[in-house]
Design goal:
The protein has 585 residues and is of the alpha+beta class. It has three domains: 3-151, no CATH class; 303-494, no CATH class; 502-583. The protein has 24 helices and 14 strands. It has helices spanning 3-13, 50-53, 55-79, 92-101, 107-110, 114-125, 127-136, 145-151, 163-174, 218-239, 245-259, 262-275, 311-314, 317-338, 371-386, 389-398, 408-426, 433-446, 453-472, 478-493, 496-505, 507-534, 544-562, 567-583; strands spanning 22-23, 29-30, 182-185, 191-192, 196-203, 208-214, 282-283, 296-300, 340-342, 350-353, 357-360, 366-368, 401-402, 449-450. α15 (371-386) packs across α20.
């Protein structure tokens, strides 16, 4: 077993109690209790300083694996050299470094392609690095495609925690026996991932639920890794600032730290449920707060199928169409209306139920678009599905951050060319919106133009949506389906009622501007008069008075509309603004 694999096993056992309890004469599990208080001892024994206490040990474990990654990469590079470059003294430094690196790499990994070596090493390093690899798998704007394809095969699993330890965790969190809350808990887990494992249970009231329990030792391990990753981010920002590694790592650390507190997942589930309260066919699990804590989440059991090969036998043709429509409506609404979306969406986190209902689970990782970014994403996606090439390039560019030496104009031209090629292929049915967005981000990296991390998470949601929809209907026109739902949101966003709400929300700022307007006008006129007294015949301040008056008329007209003023009040104000602008000097 490798060092990395040993570390994973230790992560599960770390901080576990010295004794996991004993079985009584009746076979009932009895966890270890304090001699003084009689209470169950903590299965976590979480110490706020524990992430720092294990920092040095974990640093050397990571150092060994990272060194092996670099060594394996050099070995793979030398093996890929043409035969003529391996003869004599050609490529001496590369060949020597590969020879010296060989002892660092296990024999069973050494001869594998480098992308496979990288994936296996990330799996050895444990849950934090598996999740980091899953995020990097989406970053085709940073990494070569052969690496991102391999990273999509990362296994997010750790050894199953014995049920006796799970019972002890439940008793510690509930401060009493779980039998007082549940009449049955299945000892066999439904699933076991890196951070938590899930069990089927029935409450004393007969509710069928799922219990999600954080594994002991995982929290300390992840917080230690986060501290080390932040140090790495600072170093990489100094060495390769053009790729903005610190921002990427900080965003990843923020998402991962939230995942180990199940209260966040409970909050997310309830937020999603509230957002989709008007859509009975899009479901999120009900949270049982009375049975949930930071380390235990009790939620509704969804009875359905994952989007796999036997899904076609489970659904009628009518249900398939409903699933496609409901899934598209859910994803597009999350992304472009609410700006609050499932950031770890893959087929394993979807449940397809009879009646065409779609359920979303595993809601610990969510993405949020700020209002400005959400609007830009809405405009961008609308332009994509309607074939507005120049508009899509313009809106995408508006969200970009340009590094030193970046070329925004070249990026815009390259993206426009890419979109034209995609639209030409769309007639052949070979068209993927998600793939086009991913390639656009890749073009950005070549021109040192980068985008918010949330955009890569958005792509993951779109890829899942496209994949499930095409599995149900291989002949589906995904862009046409997307256009239907994005148009619905577009019309809603720009309806009279929506625009009125926006104006009302902006009323305080408008009133504040109206209060300050006389002073602004007086200052502007004073500046204008001073310029008239001292200007030449070609003064650049010509027309300032009319510009100020036109602006005042526009502001007055907006205030009149917001306050419900009659049309004969605000229409003349806008007409005066036009006259001042056109004829003013």
């Amino acid at each position: 077993m490798t060092t990395g694999e040993n570390q994973q096993d230790e992560a599960v056992k770390q901080d576990a109690p010295a004794s996991t309890g004993s079985n009584g004469m009746d076979g009932t599990y009895r966890p270890e209790r304090s001699v003084l208080t009689g209470q169950v001892k903590s299965p976590y024994k979480f110490d706020p300083l524990s992430p720092y206490k294990g920092l040095l040990r974990r640093f050397f474990q990571i150092h060994r694996n990272v060194s092996a990654i670099f060594g394996g990469g050099m070995i793979a590079y030398v093996k890929a050299l043409p035969p003529e470059r391996k003869k004599g003294l050609r490529s001496p430094w590369s060949r020597m470094f590969a020879f010296l690196s060989a002892p660092l790499v296990k024999k069973d990994i050494r001869n594998l392609p480098f992308p496979v070596q990288l994936r296996k090493r990330l799996e050895m390093l444990g849950p934090t690095y598996v999740k980091l690899g899953q995020i990097l798998a989406l970053r085709e704007d940073i990494l070569p495609r052969n690496i991102t394809l391999e990273l999509k095969n990362l296994l997010d699993k750790l050894p199953v925690v014995p049920f006796e330890v799970i019972r002890e965790i439940l008793e510690f969190n509930y401060k009493k026996s779980p039998d007082e809350y549940f009449r049955y808990i299945d000892p066999e887990p439904l699933g076991s991932a890196s951070i938590a494992q899930t069990h089927y249970a029935e409450t004393v009231d007969g509710e069928r639920v799922v219990l999600k329990v954080v594994k002991p030792g995982i929290k300390s391990l992840i917080l230690t890794d986060i501290n080390l990753l932040k140090m790495l981010g600072k170093f990489l920002s100094w060495s390769i600032p053009q790729y903005q590694p610190k921002r990427l790592i900080d965003e990843f650390c923020k998402y991962t730290a939230k995942e180990v507190d199940l209260n966040n997942e409970a909050d997310n589930a309830e937020t999603f449920a509230a957002n989709f309260a008007d859509h009975p066919h899009i479901l999120f699990p009900k949270i049982y707060r009375e049975y949930s804590t930071e380390n235990v989440l009790c939620m509704e059991l969804f009875e359905g199928k994952k989007p796999d090969s036997d899904m076609a036998d489970f659904l009628t043709d009518e249900d398939k169409e409903l699933v496609i429509q409901n899934g598209a409506a859910a994803i597009i609404r999350m992304l472009y209306k609410d700006g609050f979306f499932h950031a770890d969406l893959h087929p394993g986190n979807l449940m397809i139920m009879k009646g065409g209902k779609v359920g979303f689970i595993d809601l610990g990782m969510v993405g949020r678009f700020e209002e400005k970014t959400r609007r830009q994403m809405l405009y961008y996606f609308h332009a994509l599905v309607t074939g507005d090439i120049e508009g899509a390039a313009r809106y995408l560019t508006a969200m970009a951050t340009v590094s030193k030496g970046g070329n925004l104009n070249e990026f815009r031209r390259s993206v426009s060319d890419l979109q034209r090629r995609y639209y030409l292929h769309s007639a052949q049915g070979d068209f993927s919106l998600a793939r086009m967005i991913v390639q656009s981000l890749g073009i950005g990296a070549r021109h040192k133009v980068f985008f918010p991390v949330e955009m890569t998470l958005m792509v993951k949601a779109l890829v899942t949506y496209e994949g499930v929809a095409l599995a149900l209907n291989p002949k589906l026109d995904v862009p046409a389906l997307s256009q239907k739902h994005i148009n619905d949101i577009f019309r809603e966003q720009f309806s009279t009622a929506s625009l009125t709400r926006e104006l009302i929300r902006g009323t305080p700022e408008l009133i504040d501007m109206a209060v300050r307007l006389p002073k602004l006008m007086a200052d502007g006129l004073r500046t204008f008069e001073d310029s008239v007294n001292n200007r030449s015949s070609e003064s650049p301040l010509d027309g300032l008075r009319s510009s100020v008056l036109a602006g005042a008329c526009i502001v007055g007209g907006v205030i009149a509309i917001v306050q419900g003023g009659a049309w004969f009040i605000w229409v003349p104000l806008f007409l005066l603004a036009v006259l001042f602008t056109v004829f003013g000097r």
